Amino acid sequence: MPPREFVSLAADLGCRHISTGLESHPHSSMGYLPFSLREDSALRAQMIATMRDRGIRDRVHDLELLAELGAQRINTVALDPDLNRSVEQFGLLAEAAAAFGMETTVEPSPGLTIGDLPTALYAIRQVGRSDFRLLIDTMHIIRSGSTPDDVAALEPDVIGYIQLSDAPLVPTTPDYMTEAMFERMVPGTGGLPLLDLLAALPRDLPIGLEIPIRSQAEAGISPHDRLGRCVESARGLLAQL
Question: What pTM, to 2 d.p., does this model score?
Answer without folding.
Answer: 0.77
